[in-house]
Amino acid sequence: MLIRGASFIVTGGGSGLGAAIVRALVEAGGRVTIADLNAEAGQEIAREFGSDACFVKADVTDGEEGAAVVAAAVEAFGSLRGLVNCAGVAPAEKVIGRDGPHRLESFARTVGINLIGTFNMIRLAAAAIQTTEPDAEGERGVIVNTASVAAFDMPAEVQAALGKSVPFPPRLGRPAEFAGLVRHIFENNMLNGEVIRLDGALRMGAR
Ligand SMILES: NC(=O)c1ccc[n+]([C@@H]2O[C@H](COP(=O)([O-])OP(=O)(O)OC[C@H]3O[C@@H](n4cnc5c(N)ncnc54)[C@H](O)[C@@H]3O)[C@@H](O)[C@H]2O)c1
């Protein structure tokens, strides 16, 4: 797909991986609607890109708020060709931790945002992408979802230890590296229906 001139939604675009993807897409000529719960962070990123980005405060787990994001993207930029799901949380809890069993509420919240929220945005964005004019190859749009091999809301020393355990390079990934991959996914039409690990060959051990 040609990113230049195309319209995208990035959930969680106010921070981290999402913000890096907003930057990469706008730099490639795309127009981006940022959806995030954190209005301050999302608006700040959108302001950086002037008329090429807009912000909608939304909880991805909410049907109506998700629909409002898609409607805003279509209204602002005429159509929708892509969705990148980056809104997510990662509570660093073990099934049995020092303080007892994993809290059920935090697990349910994580499933709500990372799984149901992702599906909510997929279904709503797909309905809009379906109505977008296909390009010369017949492509209407692309959806990219994000997952994690590990939680990252961890103390700094745990993150440092995790980084050192990556075979090569021995560090955690950088948002710009992830954004570069997402850009390539959009631009390479044969890359479809695939799960891609961007993890320096890290395989998590039992502990
Ligand atoms: N950072 C990494 O290295 C890394 C690696 C692999 C996977 N991941 C996963 O990618 C996702 C994003 O990671 P990140 O590091 O960018 O996190 P982050 O905390 O920097 O950004 C997440 C954004 O999502 C938003 N958000 C949270 N809940 C929301 C909701 N219900 N509705 C709308 N927005 C919501 C937050 O406000 C925040 O701006 C997470 O699920 C994380 O587990 C991160």
Helices and strands in order:
Elements: E1 7-11, H1 16-27, E2 31-36, H2 39-48, E3 53-57, H3 63-77, E4 82-85, E5 96-97, E6 100-101, H4 104-129, E7 142-145, H5 156-164, H6 175-187
Helix pairs in contact: 1-6, 3-4
The protein binds nicotinamide-adenine-dinucleotide.
CATH topology category name: Rossmann fold
How do the strands line up in the largest sheet? 3-2-1-4-7
Residue-averaged pLDDT = 94
CATH architectural grouping: 3-Layer(aba) Sandwich
Amount of beta strand: 5-15%
Determine the CATH superfamily.
NAD(P)-binding Rossmann-like Domain
Largest sheet: 5 strands, parallel
The hetero molecules present are: nicotinamide-adenine-dinucleotide
Query: What is the end-to-end distance?
Result: 41 Å
Q: Rg from C-alpha positions?
A: 18 Å
- Number of helical regions: 6
| Low-confidence residue ranges | none
Number of domains: 1
The arrangement of helices and strands along the chain is EHEHEHEEEHEHH
How would you characterize the overall build of this protein?
- The chain starts with 6 loop residues before the first strand and ends in a 20-residue tail after the last helix.
- The mean pLDDT is about 95.
- The longest helix is centred in the middle third of the chain and has 26 residues.
- The chain has one domain: Rossmann fold.
- The protein is about 40% helix and about 15% strand.
- The strands form two sheets. A five-stranded parallel sheet has the order 3-2-1-4-7, with helices on both faces. Strands 5-6 form a two-stranded antiparallel ribbon.
- The structure holds nicotinamide-adenine-dinucleotide.
- Nicotinamide-adenine-dinucleotide (NAD) binds next to helix 1 and helix 4.
